[in-house]
Amino acid sequence: MSREDSKRLWKGARFPEDNDSAFLLDVHERGIPGAKRMASYADDHEVDLVIVGAGAGGSTLAQRLARHGWKIVILESGPFWDPDKDWISDEAGQHKIYWTANRIIGGEDPVELGKNNSGHGVGGSMIHYAGYTPRFHPSDFETHTRDGVGADWPISYWDLKPHYEKVELELPVAGQDWPWGDPHRYPHAPHPISGAAEQARRGLRQAGIKVRVGPVGIPNGTFGNRPHCIYRGFCLQACKVNAKSSPFVTHLPDAIEHGVEVRAGSHAVRVEVDEGGRCTGVTYDSGGRQRFQRGAAVVVAGYSIESPRLLLNSTSKRYPDGLANGHDQVGRYLMVQGATQVAGRFPDPLRQYKAPPPEISSEDFYETDEGRGFARGFSIQTVGPLPIAWAEHVLADGHWGHALRAYMRDYNHWTTLGLLCELLPHAENRITLADETDQHGMPVARFDYTQSENDRANIAYGGRVLEQVWEAAGAQDTLRVDRYAHLVGGCRMGSAPEESVVDSDHRAWGIPNLFVCDGSTMPTQGAANPALTIMALASRLGERMAAQKVRT
């Protein structure tokens, strides 16, 4: 048997060697069994590491280091979910999984915050992500060198590649062999696709656009004690059966088994430092009472709004402008993706709510093409808005009253494609602290955002492509909504403190035992969903910290 035939034979049969999460789950219950016997550390016990945030970055990092004997406390602002008790198959009933605390938005093109870009609770935003798990391309790490825009990362794609592969096996990722960027395969074969996705695939092919099924962080079949996907379509409202991958099922069970304490309902308000400038731990609000957890090192992993807010609020005599902010870089270069969606109407019922929203995608337009008149590009993906989201879609296209009701009755005849346009980093797009305070006594975050002309051109071109796809497919009507997705940036990594917040090892400039490990460290956005890259970054950092290549 050839090596290639062997790979195909074992596709879907491999498990990670140093992560037992899939087998630690209970086949009859959806919570994390180990949570009932989780380690508990006293506040005055100096643990090896205090991590703020139990999302993609913090959870993956904790799992990696716990396997090497590190004593770790994760402080999570939200609740410790029990899917059997807390999650329901209802759009409105699942608003509790989103971070909906008060935030102020501004700029010429303000970004709506909440359900589309912020998670609340153990597992973070990946509890409600759609499930798409593409890699970034090699070009994403050197956009300034290649295209004269954005910024070059201080690491390369090749530094992350082994961690992409490792995390893809842990989730695991299912999809067809991938031809774009660095061509690669996935651990699991692609899922079957719905009639709605088949109609979209037909239109893309007729428009001359390459398309593939996946990639999704949903095993194709059972995986350890995790069940097969039942194609219920509620990925964005949390996967009640634990088929969709998130840190809640892929990394935290193993982390807890190896001694990590996840302290839910614990909102970090300040990272404390001593007179020498080293971190000593984190002050947090628990039930209205402030407590202090000692730690030999601190990792901030609260994502692109809460991480900058925490650093900016952590002022002292030594750091009057907040931590890692000596050059006014904290909170800057925050990015989103242009996520325009265009739906097409067809005579036959398509029922776009069936199956996970992420089914097929194309990266034919990912890289810069000077003939398009702008730098960088976009990807195309199927999405499956449920009825409330569909109503928002119809309203955004200008239909109210009787027309809205007519479109709602016609819901089953529509299918939707979405863009992920790479919007560029700009220093003025940033997080600052407002005068208003929240229930924890912290200043509320203010997020100002304005698109550049390159951003506008990218979104406009992508929208025209989607219209052409539906025209090629024979759609009878189309609806369009312009929107954003996926926050990244705000504490970006770089090669010098004058232009970044952390170095290539996620260490804050000038503070040897403070790290940031989440999407906020990403210097560019790419045209791919960021979850896999965030987990790969955390995996790389964990490997380097465990090997003492990064000392705290």
Can you walk me through this structure?
There is one protein chain. This protein has 552 residues and is an alpha/beta fold. It has a single domain (41-84, 91-546), classed as FAD/NAD(P)-binding domain, CATH 3.50.50. It is 24% helix and 17% strand. It has 14 helices and 19 strands. It has helices at 3-9, 21-24, 56-66, 83-86, 143-147, 157-170, 195-206, 247-250, 252-257, 303-313, 387-396, 401-409, 453-473, 531-546; strands at residues 49-52, 72-75, 104-106, 212-213, 261-263, 267-273, 279-286, 289-294, 298-300, 335-338, 341-345, 360-362, 378-383, 414-422, 430-437, 443-448, 477-481, 484-488, 514-516. Strands 4, 10, 11, 12, 13, 14, 17 and 18 form an eight-stranded antiparallel beta sheet that branches. The longest helix has 21 residues, at 453-473. The protein is globular.
Can you describe this structure in just a few lines?
The protein is α/β, with parallel strands linked by helices and 552 residues long.
Please give the number of β-strands: 19
- Main sheet overview: 8 strands, antiparallel
CATH architecture: 3-Layer(bba) Sandwich
Level-1 CATH class name: Alpha Beta
Mean residue pLDDT: 95
Rg for CA atoms: 22 Å
- Bin the helical content: 10-25%
| Overall SS class | alpha/beta
Strand content: 15-25%
Our measurement of the CA-to-CA distance between the termini, rounded to an integer number of angstroms, reads: 48 Å
| CATH superfamily membership | FAD/NAD(P)-binding domain
**What best-fitting shape do the alpha-carbon axes yield?**
globular
Which residues form runs of ≥5 with pLDDT under 50? none
Classify the fold: give the CATH topology.
FAD/NAD(P)-binding domain
Count the DSSP helices: 14
How many domains comprise the coordinates?
Answer: 1
